[in-house]
Amino acid sequence: MERVHKLGFQMKTQPKRTIAELKELRELTGDENGAQRVAFTQTWARARAWLRRKLEEFSSEIHTDEAGNLWATLCGESDRALLLGGHIDSVPNGGWLDGCLNTLAGVEILRRINAQYHGKPPVTVRLVDWADEEGARFGKSLFGSSACSGHLDMDEARALKDKEGVVLPAALKQNGIDFEKVKECRKELANAAAYLELHIEQGPVLLDLDRPLGTVLGTFGVERHAITFRGQAAHSGSTPMNKRKDAFLAAAKMSPEIYRITERNGGVCTIGSCTTKPGIVTSVVEECRITLDQRHLDGEALGRMLLEAKEASERFAKEGNVAVSWDRLWQIEPILFNEDLIALCDEAISDTGAAPHRLPSGPLHDAAEVARAGVPTIMMFVQSLHGISHNKIEDTKEEHLEIAVTAFDRLTDKAIRWIESRDRGTAR
Which end of the chain is more exposed for a tag (fewer CB within 10 A), N or C? Predict the structure, then answer.
């Protein structure tokens, strides 16, 4: 009878407390330029200690794994675990919500579950604060979650340096982390049955639709390349226009064509940088290097975007009598989230009176790495004012933050029942 009572009555979270704690964290680790919780720095360590004190206020087992991820666990009647994830680190001069909203909403939900089930929920519930989601110091995003998923490239990570020349393994050692053992944290996912993450959208879609919340279908796949056009340096004054082998001209033609290719295929793209050699006004450009980022939720469409971009670059190179080469900088396949959890997320949003809306995530998140590890995963987005993130002006209406915490709590409760039904073989 006690078990029926527990499942039939859900205590309420206190979203206003989450907002107050977000503001408390902002005061502790921000300045006039925004959030300064860059991973593996003293400010990040101070934020982590503050978070740990919050977790110690109720009965959860707390530890830091081999990659520096912080875990708080409410052991349940079943070892099967529901994971709630976020990250407390930020970019320099970042916003007050990116990452830490996920984490502090998770703290509030663990409080509710601990009180409702008297410290013994039907399934184990765990909150994880992933280490260095942003990659702001060393340029490698999703460090802790990719170590946990097993997809961290150790050789690449071992060589990473910050702007002061400090290598990643040395910075980790200063924080009590042995780089060579970071992948041992994979054991943390051994009993994971589902992973939930709440996040600000960081874009304008929900804002434009005037909807507070959205269900995330998955994260975009990414193809990131450096494209180098090579021509011939020549004097700016004495070389006729029809005799030039201008590498910049060929590269410049790529920009509008890239946008046309993207529009045809329905993805997004960015030419993020352009450098020239010799880089002086009195010489025709001998070499021009541009960086291209292409993203799409559909793998086949992403492949078409890449193929069409390569064909265009070769066409423009031939027209300008220059050479072109491509170097892959990074790639990740599209990550699609679990269909059952997508439906549950829609239901949780509807429970608050908001209209659900499904959308993909352009930015990458730790959720993508957990999904890559085979754990059923879902994300919920809350509207971002201005459609802006990674900026001190990042913001969300407090009423929307309250709705988000409430909806995420409802999703957590539904996910607990979903895990139980799957274990009984009755999942939908």
Answer: N
Which residues does 35 contact at the CB level (< 8 Å), separation at least 6? Answer: 26, 29, 90, 91, 93, 94, 95, 96, 98, 392
Tokens standing for 377? Answer: 């995963």
Q: Are 207 and 384 in contact (CB under 8 A)?
A: yes
Nearest to 218 by CA among 278, 298, 144, 145: 298
- Reported as a single tens digit per residue, the pLDDT across 8-66 is 456 789 999 999 999 999 999 999 999 999 999 999 999 999 999 999 998 779 999 99
Enter the tokens of residue 257. Answer: 């064509």
Cis peptide bond prior to 278, omega within 30° of 0: yes
Phi/psi for 81 (5° steps) reads -120, 135
Say whether both 19 and 83 belong to one domain: yes
Domain identity same for 235 and 211: no
- Let me know whether 115 and 206 are in one domain: yes
Distances (CA, A) of 75 to 54, 66, 123: 18, 21, 7
The closest of 347, 337, 336 to 413, measured between CA atoms, is 347
Q: Domain range spanning residue 405?
A: 2-219+334-424
Q: Pick from 332, 362, 385: which residue ends a domain?
A: 332
CA-CA-CA-CA dihedral for 18, 24, 27, 32, to nearest 10: 20
Q: What is the pLDDT of residues 221-235, one digit of tens each?
A: 999 999 999 999 999
* Same domain as 374, residue 326: no
Say how many domains are in the chain: 2
CB atoms within 10 A of CB 25: 23
Instruction: Kindly report the CATH number assigned to the domain that includes residue 52.
Output: 3.40.630.10
Residues 245, 210 share a domain:
no
Residue 279's pLDDT is 97
